Amino acid sequence: MRYSAFISYNHRDRDWAVWLHRALERYSVPKRLWGRPASWGKIGNRLPPVFRDRDELATSSDLATSVKEALAESAFLIVVCSPNSARSKWVDEEIKTFVAAGREKFIRLIIVAGEPHSRDPERECLPPALVRDGAPEPLAADVRKEGDGRQAAKLKILAGILGVPYDELRQREAARRQKRLAAIAVAASVGFLVMAGLTIFAFISRAEAVQQRQLAEKRTITAERTLGFVKDMFKQADPEDASGASITAREIVDRGVAKLDSPELNREPMVKAELGVTLADVYGALGLYRQSDALVRRTFAIRHGEPATLARQLNALGQSQVRLAEYEMAEGTFRKAWAQAGNASASTRSLILVGLGLSLSNQEKYREADQTFRQALRIDRTRDDPVYVAYDLEALGQNQFYQGNLEQAKPFILEALKLRRDSQGALSPGVGDNLSLLGQIAYMRHDLPAAERYFAGNLAIDRKVLGPDHPDSAATMNNLARVLLEQRRYKDAAPLLEHAVAVGERERGEGSANMAFPYSNLAIVRSHTGRLREAETLFGKAIAIARKNKHPSLGPTLADFAQLMCSTGRTAEGLKLLDEAAPVTRADYPDRSWSAWVDNVRGECLIRAGRKQEGKEAIAKSSPLILKTWPAGTLFAVEAQRRANLAM
């Protein structure tokens, strides 16, 4: 057998299929099972490849030959069960084909939504081929919260494929996770001890009076209580009771948050507030932005009377608002934090300044942002902390990048990259962030091969360190996909964008300013692969967000949507969009390359509307700049050349 399993699913359940595919292929088989016989041969350290068809067979009346061959070469058929798959012709056909080969006992089910044998047809999750009269129902795993959960469901499927009892795999997984928890606990304990020691040293070294010593003692007690809380939190994280979340660290933090309202902590409000901020920061680092925002807001109900702690609370809230693209609110929050930061540590003051600068830069208050970043840099260079210095340099470089000053931005990022690699190692998320900005600089220079290398390097780090479902990983996928689609590699770009959009919607929300670019990019891919109705919906979402947030993607997105409108005969609507696109594009992109693109699209729309002379003139004027700006063979160059030929 070539494949250990064939995953059958409806395209609306793609995220579940992708998760299952990765979970199966990445699973490390217990060593004691190696060499045992299996349907495909002998069991090794990994399962053989798992086949996952990419989409529905929308234009065919029969299963594709490649799909039939894959079914014949698959040891098991795993059906992702939901109301979507229950109504899917192709999922049903794949099941029938597998059953017809006499291999019904090798079918496994994983329920992701709906109900099996439901009285409500809209809730039924089993395809018709699975509910034939007298037919035995295949073994099922259930990822729903009321069912097994993800972790247990994954292990049930693996147990069925490997031919071992589920409890055997569960106990092995529990032991492995216990070791991982112990390692994390040791690292966290050491980290908190170091942080506590540094805090004490910082305050004692500044001992100008008895008041400062008393404050240091207070902080020492708080640090000790925090350390004790975290140690206890790790001890309580029993993997036998784990909820099945994909990130073990999240399970631990969830348990810590649940303990915040204990009577003991209610008697120590300063400790409780500090812990709440710390746990909110961890949620943010894990990419759980909404949980982070909700938790930090909870801490403001705690009455502790400590200005430095309040400064950290406000800083955490401001950071959350920046992540959620609420820049005006973030600016006000950071200013309040700075007003409370007189007795705060130098690192806290530096973080507040950088947060304030980021909120200003995203509102295009670049000069004030630059001054704020440089103030933070002076603090951190005095402390000689390479990580904080790198953070300041990255903010300065990003601020220059936003202004279009690519040459001024690059030295800041290269210095930050060296500091990150030297102090944190090659897999630091900060290294990935710097590769990302270098990729953006290369992209703005239209050096697509260099941009692809940088973004691919960034994504490799993000996937390894943060995981594929982290918002930072999703942002990197979006950037890499943009480079691929401009090279007209739509099939490569599509899965990256689909995943990026799904993660963004879940963690940032559909209306977030950060969603304008992913929606627009996926719309372009859909429009060039014949899925025009989806493209229209996505363009509509992208434009609504960009208008609301004055996003720089507005002009080009309006032009791309206008191109779709005009190509489908709605030239009046397309020209109206272009009338809106022209002034905002001129304002956002002074180099005129994007303005030329808007004019180029207008030329084709005018020709399609019967105004041929006007259209030819617009194309003739705009094509040379586009062909000079974008390399031959790229999306915009190919489109401009096509229109130039049209205008002849």
In terms of topology, how is this protein built?
Blueprint: E1 3-8, H1 14-26, E2 37-38, E3 41-42, E4 50-52, H2 65-72, E5 74-81, H3 83-86, H4 89-100, E6 107-111, E7 139-142, H5 150-162, H6 166-205, H7 210-236, H8 248-258, H9 263-266, H10 269-285, H11 289-298, H12 307-323, H13 327-339, H14 346-361, H15 366-383, H16 386-402, H17 406-424, H18 429-444, H19 448-465, H20 471-486, H21 490-507, H22 516-528, H23 532-549, H24 554-567, H25 571-588, H26 593-608, H27 612-629, H28 635-646
Parallel strand pairs: 1-4, 1-5, 5-6, 6-7
Antiparallel strand pairs: 2-3
Helix pairs in contact: 5-6, 6-7, 7-8, 7-10, 8-10, 10-11, 10-12, 11-12, 12-13, 12-14, 13-14, 14-15, 14-16, 15-16, 16-17, 16-18, 17-18, 18-19, 19-20, 20-21, 20-22, 21-22, 22-23, 22-24, 23-24, 24-25, 24-26, 25-26, 26-27, 26-28, 27-28
